[in-house]
Amino acid sequence: MPKFTKELVDDLAAKLLIGLSEEENQMVLDEFAIIDEELSKVDSFPNIKNVEPMTHALDDFTFTLREDEAKDSIPIEDALRNCDKTEGREVEVPKVVGGEN
Amino acid sequence: MDKSIEELHELLKANKVTSKELIQESLQKSHEVQDKYNAFVTILDDAKETNVTDNLLSGIPFGIKDNYSTKDILSTGSSNTLKDYVPFFNATAVQKLLDAGAVPVNKTVLDEFGMGGTGTTGHTGIVKNPWDTTRMCAGSSAGSACAVAAGVYPYALGSDTGDSIRKPAAYCGIVGYKPTYGMISRYGLFPFASSLDHCGVLTRSVKDAAIVVDTMKGIDEHDMTTWDSSDIHLYESLNGNVEGKKLCYIKELCDIEAYENPTEELKSHLENFKKSLEICKEAGIIVEEVSVDKKLLDALPSVYVAISCAEATSNMSNLTGIIFGPRGEGKNVTEMMMDHRTKGFSPLIKRRFVIGSYILQKENQERYFKNAQRVRRLLVDTWKELFKSYDAVILPVGSGPAKHLDGSKDILTKDTAALEEHLQVGNFGGFPSITIPDGFINNLPVALNITGNCYDDANVLNIAYAIESKMNYKNQIAGGVSHE
User: Fold this and answer.
1) What are phi and psi of B400, to 5 degrees?
2) Contact assessment for residue B353 and residue B342, using Cβ atoms and an 8 Å cutoff
3) Which of residues 304 through 333 in chain B touch A, CB cutoff 8 A?
4) Is residue B297 within 8 Å of B378, Cβ to Cβ?
5) Exposed site from B166, B189, B310, B399, fewest CB < 10 Å?
6) What number is the ipTM of this complex?
7) ω before B140 within 30° of 0 (cis)?
8) Chain A residues within an 8 Å CB radius of B226
9) A65 in reach of chain B (CB within 8 A)
10) Is residue B371 less than 8 Å (CB to CB) from chain A?
11) Span A11-28, mean pLDDT?
């Protein structure tokens, strides 16, 4: 497991497409140190590995799939109303294929 | 606007006041509260009156936390990444209130996307506590708590992923209720951590909370985690009859001896809580002390951060500024998204995303994410075991009254006591949970919380209703101590 370092924090942030200042990077390390310390104690809990991880608030959660019937979708104008750059029915972005990527 | 929903309804029905007059008063009060405490992202000055019907909420103004989607009304999540975002649909919970004839008059400030507990990280600035402007409202439903406490309207919507309704309610001297997970549809609520997110309400009385949630709840085809609650009638179930009901409190959280260097406020808070327990007993409730493994309680805050950060990292990957949100600068799409997210997110959000991402890395999942989920189950099982013998768990909220705004960094520190964070168990297990005010320390309100088993909302609210009626903190409006 890679050690949680300044470089790793920057690498993770870059993958998340987030830039961090030096101060923000240090805050991540400080906060994570506490989480690491606390969660490292969990391994010593009796039979912890036999506990089924709880992924949802309700254990008796059930759902049924709806019928596979086409329903109305939203008007394209609504879908695009919060987009800064559009062209007709499409979102406008810099050329990706063969562009400056 | 300092009256209860029932009182306002009776005045409306008797033509002693009109819906238009109530809305005008609420809007005027909104502007006063905005100037003093900065509680709102948007004030809806063009809000229109509605017909008064037999529905208790008709014609009465209310507030909406700004992470609920509101059709044609700015909905920012208090984030720069959505500072101009205007949804084309209403959240289901909002639509149900509109259908009942309720009138929204403002959108309230939250900690950015609900990811904070101080009311200081919203993109429009900090929210001040109406009881004392040097103190925080807590968060993330800071603006909603502030406005209800200041008497802008009888209720405002909140959301609760860790304690985001129930902690601000405590700090502002009002009632905060989140029902069982899935009782209210989350459709249209900006997601933070989907397995923990709940919709709910902040009010000045338990009865008002019951009235509002009766209207907000219900199965929704747009949220597959909702369930049929049509046989639950919260308002009608409030009878105050609690003779023989059983509550327990947890020794490890409530015993002052458990704390090495307790502050005077903590001492007063726990002493006040003991007095509240006596009031419960006088009301005919059986109250007993129980013991819970301290190791489990101590792990609680980190478990919450691990799970919520991991889920949030995934949920918020759609905030790119490409399809919606302000377009970032850059010569290609990647640079644009990087610019949008770097400038748009506050430092708090950024570090939680990074922690969430690290936890979700394949090689780290077992040690952090899975172990956190295992402890989540152990905590929930512990509470469910208590519910076999008790109607609910009663505990003090936080370690005292509202904290000072100075030094509110919202950083998880080693000093973070389980006492501050125990309400998160209510989210882990989806339990119905309500906070009610139970006294004052240094002229600031403090509160207790009652949490019961899933689907037992009516019982939990009725117990809270009975305790509330034995105290003098119902329908209180913040007096306001300005330090400017």
Assistant:
1) 155, -160
2) no
3) 305-306, 313, 317, 320-327, 331-333
4) no
5) B399
6) 0.92
7) yes
8) none
9) no
10) yes
11) 94
